[in-house]
């Protein structure tokens, strides 16, 4: 068993390969006990050539490149890679972003030093063509996941969660949010590291940008996938959203309504304020 498995889901991100793999090669943690699984989702660019180039450059325990049939979204691609991973700890990281030098060492040390912790995630730097700024996340509280996702997609977690049967589901575009809810329901304990440890680059090809277009359905599916985690009124909202009911709008982007939000909406409808 390796110490850490890094699963890299990729689709036409070859242009970012040098930046990403350079950041991986520059980690303060030695990679001798790390396996890297590059899963290409039918790219039409030079992604496979770039991965092969870096496989020869990076000194790690294992570097494999896979080309399964195209799935069209990162969740099932991550599942494919995770099913072939053997690490004590697991990480899925998109190759259009980059790791800061202490990312792996800091996160793995946190898990190694406290067996009670299951999932570790950090703040990050968000970069657009116009500006860069730090995304400072709140310390984790389980109930936060009922209304918004405060856990980053690139968290490192114990493989026991994967072995408990948790998988990225295909029916929601907010795949990582649904995944962390599953981890929480399986007993996972989360730790937030209050410092930026990676850089998230915003560009038009980000899957998250595409997912926002399907915001209402993506949130409703999270609720229906995990009904025991949500208030019955919120489950009813999700059901009614798919029925196209006027009293079940999508609400603010990236926010699942609380039961209080639904009560306020109901009062507004009764009073004729809508």
Structural class: alpha/beta
Q: What fraction strand?
A: 15-25%
How many H/I helices?
10
* Gross geometry: globular
Helical amount: 25-40%
Average pLDDT works out at 94
Instruction: Give the beta-strand count.
Output: 9
| Order of SSEs | EHEHEHEEHEEEHHEHHHH
Largest sheet: 9 strands, mixed
In angstroms, what is the radius of gyration?
19 Å
Task: Catalogue the unreliable spans.
Answer: none
State the end-to-end CA separation: 58 Å
Q: Can you walk through the features of this model?
A:
By secondary structure, the protein is of the alpha/beta class. The chain is built from ten helices and nine strands. Strands 1, 2, 3, 4, 5, 6, 7, 8 and 9 form a nine-stranded mixed beta sheet that branches. Helix 8 (215-225) packs across helix 9 (232-243). It is globular, with a radius of gyration of 19 Å. The termini are far apart. The mean pLDDT is 94.
């Amino acid at each position: 068993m390796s110490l850490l498995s890094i699963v890299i889901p990729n689709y036409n991100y070859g242009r970012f390969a040098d930046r990403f793999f350079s950041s991986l090669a520059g980690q303060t943690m030695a990679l001798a006990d790390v396996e890297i699984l590059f899963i290409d989702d039918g790219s039409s660019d030079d992604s496979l050539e770039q991965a092969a180039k870096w496989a020869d450059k990076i000194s790690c325990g294992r570097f494999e490149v896979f080309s399964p049939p195209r799935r069209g979204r990162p969740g099932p691609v991550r599942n494919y890679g995770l099913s072939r991973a053997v690490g004590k700890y697991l990480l899925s990281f998109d190759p259009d972003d980059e790791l800061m030098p202490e990312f792996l060492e800091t996160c793995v040390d946190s898990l190694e030093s406290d067996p009670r912790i299951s999932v570790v995630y950090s703040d990050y730097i968000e970069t657009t063509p116009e500006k860069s700024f730090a995304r400072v996340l709140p310390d984790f509280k389980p109930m936060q996941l009922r209304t918004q996702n405060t856990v980053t997609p690139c968290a490192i977690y114990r493989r026991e969660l994967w072995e408990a049967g948790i998988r990225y589901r295909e029916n929601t575009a907010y795949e990582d949010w649904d995944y962390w809810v599953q981890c929480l329901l399986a007993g996972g304990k989360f730790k937030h590291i209050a410092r930026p440890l990676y850089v998230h680059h915003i560009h038009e090809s980000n899957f998250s940008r595409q997912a926002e277009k399907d915001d209402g359905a993506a949130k409703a599916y999270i609720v229906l996938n995990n009904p025991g985690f949500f208030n019955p009124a919120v489950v009813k909202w999700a059901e009614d959203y798919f029925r196209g009911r006027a009293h079940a709008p999508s609400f603010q982007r990236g926010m699942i309504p609380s039961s209080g939000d639904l009560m306020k909406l109901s009062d507004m409808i009764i009073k004729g304020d809508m």
